[in-house]
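fyi for ur records
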Amino acid sequence: MVFFQKHVSRYRNLSLRHAVNRMKLCIPVLMVIFLLAICVRAQDIQNSQKKILSINKKEASVISELENLSISLDNARRKSALIKKDILQLRQQIKQNSNRSLALSKQIRRNEKHAYQRIVALYKLNQIGKLNILASTDSLYAFFQRKRALETILHQDEQILEALQKNQSELFQLRQNLHDQKEKKDALETRLNVQIVNMTRKREKRARLLNEIRNKKSLTLAALESMKQSAQALDTTISGFKKEDPGHHPYAGTSPHTFSELKGLLIMPVKGKIVEFFGPYTNARFKIVNFRSGINIQAERGEPIYAVYKGTTLYASWFKGYGNMIIIDHGNHYYTLYAHAEELFKKKGDPVEAGEVIATVGDTGSMANPGLHFEVRHHGQPIDPTPWINQG
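which gave:
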């Protein structure tokens, strides 16, 4: 019995040592497995981060492409407008030259008819004899009078012939100019047709991008983020305007009222309907909250945009996210902003009168239909424009 217990105890000791030894061997293996798991997990996280970064870059690329496409489309529109202007001028010149050419042709025909008659008369005169005509007078006075008359007739004949030659030369030059102008007009019209085709393609591409942005949440978020960045850049730009002196009233002498006294009396900046209002708003499709620093007025493309009050143009150019934009300083730290315009009629530093047309409605830099984004700012901060406008 004692022998049996002794061997059992020895076996247990051996099993325990064997188990410990096995555990000592397993610990490094477990540590390796654990470290491998951590590495795999880290790799998965890194891959996920790369994937997210790649998606963000792709979305940012789409928004950037939309901005670049909008700028390119605006440049194409400007070129087309210049070509149309040149074509119109050429058409007017061609019309004027055609009318002048027609008048010259009539004058030349009259002069040619007169010249032909004079040639016949001179031929007859040579047959009768110039001396016989002069000798047939009754007195010396009549002789000299007839002589002066002949000289006058001959001088007029010379003038008519000179005018005929001059008119023929001018007509030849006019016809050459007409030919050149028509060729230039045809070339410009070809260029215009190319521009129109390019603009049509760009508009179609822009429409596809906008549709994709509106229907994809990630792109909508990216677009909203881009708009926030543009708004921040605008805040920085406005805060960078030259600070006014305290009590500076640049329009006090030309207007009985300051801008602050016209609250509720300002004219509508464009003929249209306010469709989006100032303040926080929620995207109905994706339930995303954002902030609008002005109002959006839906209007027809090309509709005139009016300055709501007199002032000085501080900014008149393209601004990312806002397209073609004008900012007017009204004094006392009040500014108004007009964005998404198609054509600007003012440049930086230009004075502006109340009710003056400063631009036309467009959709430059916008993700919506043609319209005007209008803001009122005080000390650079946006305030609700609605109470300032007389909508009656």
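The chain has a mean pLDDT of 77. thats all i got for now
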